Amino acid sequence: MSAEQTTLAFDWSCRIMADNGCGFPAPGLHSFLFQPIFTVGGYGFNKVMLLALITTLVVVGFFYAAFGKAKVVPGKLQMIGEAGYDFVRRGIVYETIGKREGEKYVPLMVSIFFFVWIMNIWSVIPLAQFPVASIIAYPMVLALVVYVIWVSLTFKRHGFVGGWKNITGYDPSLGPIKWLVSFIEFFSNLFVRPFTHAVRLFANMFAGHLMLVMFTVASWYLLNSWLIPAAGVSFVMTMGMIGFELFVQAVQAYVFVLLACSYIQGALAEHH
Amino acid sequence: MIANLQLAAEGAQNPLLPPGPELLVGTIAFAIVFFFLAKKLLPNINKVLEERREAIEGGMEKAEAAQVEAQSVLEQYRAQLAEARHEAARLRQEATEQGAAIIAEMRAEGQRQREEIVAAGHAQIEADRKAAASALRQDVGKLATDLAGKLVGESLEDHARQSRVIDRFLDELEEKAEAAR
Hints:
The complex is a heterodimer. Chain A is an all-alpha fold. Chain A has one domain (29-268). Chain A contains 7 helices and 2 strands; from the N terminus they run ββααααααα. Chain A has helices spanning 47-67, 76-96, 99-102, 106-121, 137-168, 178-221, 228-268; strands spanning 38-40, 43-45. Chain B is an all-alpha fold. Chain B has one domain (31-180). Helix content of chain B is 91%, strand content 0%. Chain B has 3 helices and no strands. Chain B has helices at 2-11, 20-152, 160-180. In chain B, α2 (20-152) runs antiparallel to α3 (160-180). The interface between A and B is large, with 60 and 41 residues.
């Protein structure tokens, strides 16, 4: 991809009724492409990658500040960290997998939750203003980690035949349709599941970003002549969308971890 | 500029196809997070949470021990109190019994003394009566003889018959008195 194709400079002169022959610069797929900041061996390092790494810094930095020198009587930061940690541990992992079997997966789930949440939150942080998870690669990495864990866990727990029975939901009591059911389950669990797991997060962030860009750009574009009130409406919508996105970001992080836990729980369970 | 944007849109990949470098960066970014959290920071907080839980439970155990002790002391105190009450009741009972015994004894003693006194009195009276009776009999015999001698004009004193007559007379008198009684 050439640099020219990924040029996304915003044209400030584009205004409605400005008569300079430029239309509404609608957001689209190009809103998710960035010029590389620098290139290493032909591969560009762009803003999203930088945000992903800053996400790592933020999450590790926060938990280091909160738990690095953890005390029995907690400080404010440790209290907040504990609340977040407990939310994932008790609220998600213990609730789905159970305390005994789930304890092992708490660190993974806490990591995923906060990593995803902070990746999402960049969407509304000034200057960043881009949800990292709206690039499919990032949710895909996490979904793949979860996928590898639950599939290997299924076979480890139930053996080869039992593992396949677990994945296909093989149930002789279903009679002649058991093969059909097994096929659908097999396809759904092994192929559709990881895809939807990643895409659910990706699509929410993708759509959210489109909406935010759309109203933000419109606010500027409409800011001319008698359409200034319309620009005001668009601006209010932008603010509303920011609030809504904050909610969606947290919910999607929660859902992503909740699904990961339920997949692992399914792998550990005797039957689907 | 428009052309540029158009080009960008056309040149954009399918958003569902992940670009390779991003996969790598994502993996590294997440691996670092997971490494620090799983190896260091979460075990850290788990240890502290465990310590806190123990501290709280230790305090609760202490409180529980104190309560148990207080309960046992209370029970001990109650037992002692009950014992003391029992003892007091027993002593009271004993005192009552002893008092009753003493009263009964005194009463018996009094009765006995009274009877003794009464008996002594009776004996005395009987003795006095007998002495009086015998003295009287002598005096009455003498007086009667004297009187009769004076009346008859002769001394009857020496005659045994006379004394027999007097005795018979007195016996008759006695019999009359007996009959009249």
